[in-house]
Amino acid sequence: MSQPPPSHPPLQPPQPALPDFDAELSVTVQGNVLTTNMVAPTLTVDGWPAPLPAVGTQRIPIRSGRHRLQVYSQWLRRYGHAVLDVDVAPGQTLEVFYAPPHQNFYDEGAIGFSPQVRRGRGLMIGIWAMIGLLLAVVCGLILSLMITLVTLAVT
Fold first, then answer.
1. What predicted TM-score, i.e. pTM, was given to this entire model?
2. 130 partner at 20 to 30 Å CA-CA among 84, 103, 124, 145?
C-alpha cells in the first residue's frame, strides 16, 4: 500500500541570517574623469568585494569592528595598491579617501582618513616631457626636410 502525500511541505533548512550592518564606510575615490582611470578601482573589505565608483563617494554598509580595506586600480595590470586597517564603532560613518596614482606605471596608491596626495606625478611629468620632446624632434625633422626640398626646388 502506498501512503498518501503529506499535507504540509517538508521542512526547509533555516536560511542564514543577513549580517547586522550597524555602521557605514564612506569611501571617496579622488580625482576626476580627466585625470583618473575610467574603470572603477576594486575595493575589498576583509576579502569581500565592495562597489566603488571611478570617481566620487560610495557609502557601504558594514558591521562594526575591525576591518581590512584593500584597494587597487586596474588597466591592463593591477596598480595603485593600498591597504588600511580600520576600527568602526556601532552607528559610525567612517570616511576613507583613496587616491589612485596618476598613471599605471606607479604601483602604490594612497588611502587614509583624510584626502590623500596622488602619487606618481613626477613620473607622469617625465613621460609627458619625453613625448613632447620626441614630438618636437619629429616636427623639427619634418620642417627641416620640407625647407631642404623647397630650397632644392627653387634652385
1. 0.69
2. 145
